Structures are given as structure tokens and as C-alpha cells.
Amino acid sequence: MKLLSLTRYYFNKHLYSTCSVKEILKSQPEGCKKKLKGWAKAMRKMKENIFIDLDDGSTHHRLQVVIPKNKVPASLTYGCSFEAIGVLVKNPSNKLELIAESINVHGPCVVQDGYPFAPRKTYNPDYVRQHLHIRPRTATFGCLLRLRNKMSTAVRNRFSNDNFVEINVPVLSSNDCEGAGEVFVVKPNNDSLIKEMISQNHHSLLETFFNGQTYLTVSGQLHLECMARALTKVYTLGPTFRAENSKSRLHLSEFYMIEAEQAFIDRTEELLGMIEKTTSTVVEKLLEESEDEIDHYRKMIGASEDNNPVNLLKVPYEVITYHKACDILE
After folding, report:
1. pTM of the shown model
2. Where do the domains of the chain lie?
3. pLDDT, greater one: 193 or 171
């Protein structure tokens, strides 16, 4: 019995697991010893303690780490990566926080050397775009990436549950998919290689590498049509490129597109039903698993209620003719 008590004492005092902020907020393991790893998003000094907002990217929520000033490493600053070991307790606001026994800095962040982001500040997209390598550290972009991941998973699950086969269509293609859009032409960025190959095969500059002109894909439609003739139900979710003379949000040079093909569809209503099911299933799953993340993102970007994804589930999808759609747009 004494040995068992000593074993429990040793386990509680010396053994612990590494958890993400998302896992902790979900399981609420109050009184447990844990190790957390992440980045310092804000730091505050009060009396004898330092309060650190730890962000590990698993959620938009942060976990407060509390540690006495005399235990804080000199290299612990805003933006640095660190690990903290301590016990999880609830503060007067009934929120979990980590009372740290120790902190170890993994990667210092020398803010004075020109770190572009400051704590508790927001920046416009044009400014953030100038720092692509650390853009995911901003709250807005981190939230967007998590939602994008959830949506991609929901799309794949929707098609998989309906027995569709995912096809990885090629990015490099010799067709322009029935003129679906302006194409980017691909050639090697090596002049000496091109000259050597031209002298060998006597092709033109744009045809020499692949023995014909090759483009970045504008659509996987033709490949999927071939696959559907053997597998019945196929789809792809992948990058698409359009060389259009526009930089607006309506005409992107690169974007991800969902395309699906199904053999033996006899009625238009069947196709429309599949489109409606795809939209509603993906939105429902996203709201079920990430409603808190969606609400947080919408607040950060100031989205209007008209653009709330919940609206996609409130009303039935109306089927109209092409001519009626043109009249509405006019």
C-alpha cells in the first residue's frame, strides 16, 4: 500500500504528457500536470508574476501561462517559441491556466531586429502579405487555414461516403480543357538546356521539353470524364490555374476547385440534387465542428450577416431556368 502511494506521488509529481491547447480546453484536465509548447503572443507583468498568452495553432483560443519572475528565462519575449511545464488550475474567471514550474525557450524572437507584428494589433492584408513566411502566425490567417483544412476534409468525406473515387489529376497537361480559360505555358527555366534540346529534336522553344506545348491545368474535367467511364463516380480537389489579365478576387491566377463526374445520370434533377447535397453536407459539417472558429473569423474580418454560412441551410434551393437567372441578374 505504501509502495502504491509512493508510485502515485511520483507519477503526479514527475510524469506528465504534452497536450495541445485545443485538447486541454476540450477535456478540462484541472489539477493535472502538463507540458505545453507554442509561441508567446502576449506578455504581462503583475507583481511577482509574468502572464504569457500561449498559442500553439491548434485553435484560435490561447492559454495563459503564469510563472514567477525569477523563473523566467531572459530570452522569453513576445513571438518566441517555448515549452512550459506546470499544473492546470482555474483562475478567478473560471478559465484554465497553467501555473508553470519551468519554461524553456526553443526559438528566441528578437523583436528589436524588425519583427513585423506586435501583440494585440491587427494588420491589413496588404501589409501581412509582405511577410509570407510568418503570415500564418497572424490570428486571421491561422484561423483561415484551420477552416480551410476542415472544409477540405468535409468535402472528401462527403464524396467518400457516397462511394466517389478521388482522382489526382495532373497539374501539367497538354490540353486546355475545351478552352475553359487562358492557360499558362510551361517551359524549363534553363536556357542552355533548352538550346541543347532544340538542337536534338528540332522542336520550337515551347515544345522542346515535352515534345509539344504543355500548360498548367485549367480544369481536370477531361481526365475525370475518362475515369468515370471505368469507375462511375469520380472527383478531384486540386489546384487550378488561369492566366487571365485580372488580379481581383473574382479572377484568381491560382485556386483550388472541386470537380466531379458521374456516369449514367439520366435526369438533370439528379445532378442538381447531388450539387445541393454536396453544399449542404459540407456546410453542416463545418458548422458542427468549427462554429466557434467560424464566428471568431467572421468577427475579425467584419463579415456581414448576409454572408453567414448558416443562411445556406435555412432556405430550400430553388431550381430556375437559365433565362430566369439572366433576368434576375439584369
Report:
1. 0.87
2. 2-113, 122-161+265-330, 166-260
3. 171
